[in-house]
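Re: the 314-residue chain
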Amino acid sequence: MSKILTIGEILVEIVATNRGNGFREAVPLIGPFPSGAPAIFIDQVGKLGQECAIVSRVGDDDFGWVNINRLTEDGVDVSGIEVVPQGTTGSAFVRYREDGSRAFVFNIRHSACGTIELSEKTLAMIDGCTHMHVMGTALYAPSVVKSILIAVERIKAAGGTVSFDPNLRPEILDSPGMREALQTVLAKTDLFMPSGEELFLFAEAKTEDAAVAELLGRGIKAIVVKRGDKGASYFDKDTRLDLEGFKVEEVDPTGAGDCFGATFVTFWLQGASPAEALLYANASGARAVTKAGPMEGASTRAELDTLIKTQGRA
């Protein structure tokens, strides 16, 4: 059986309950919610019953333990999470603007997860995994980038596979070495999962079809383009498949793409057809937006089955 690994930030998310431009005034807040793109991803993998693990660091504080407890409850191997006695768990304050975009205040690089390094214990964990999922958000500090690249190399060398979700935000795109790290990961990628315009950050082509063809020509086995509430598209050298999204009432979109990616990767590794994997991934992303908090909408297989059935998509 395959075992999925990811490496990167674990943090809490604290969300403003009213809309506005940032945090230059006192606003009511809710949280802390367990969060961090790699953590959301791997939590969704665990909820689907797939064997999985994460390597990260948190402080020995309530913010760290709220994450460890949630991940453990949902079936994730948390033995690779180091609890740093004098460290502080990362955080993100989020406020929605009137246009629906989000303002963030992050503490990641200077938190415990900004110092992730591999140990003999975590190297042994890596060698027990068959698939590595890379989140672009996790390429935020030199030691974390180094850890991710080591994991990618070891898993690929052992015959495993790599998926890559760029998940880029303007706040981190210009971090030192970020662009070089993105290209290094892409060169090892089997399954590439960009959203919208991210596709064109990695290809010279100016149209979607040409960009997809260019990237497949570099050796990527499959590409999934995420389109938010409009659904998603799957491409490989022989196939194009477009599936529409599900109609749900949006409460909080944070984490939806991570849940989508986790579900697609899980089904893909379990041998599902692209159509089935894309259907369940779309359902997973849709359910994720119906709950407040980035990890609160992670779904079980039964919950996804129910959504698919009730919307006549079975």
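Residues 4-310 form a domain with the UDP-N-acetylmuramoyl-L-alanine:D-glutamate ligase fold (CATH 3.40.1190.20).
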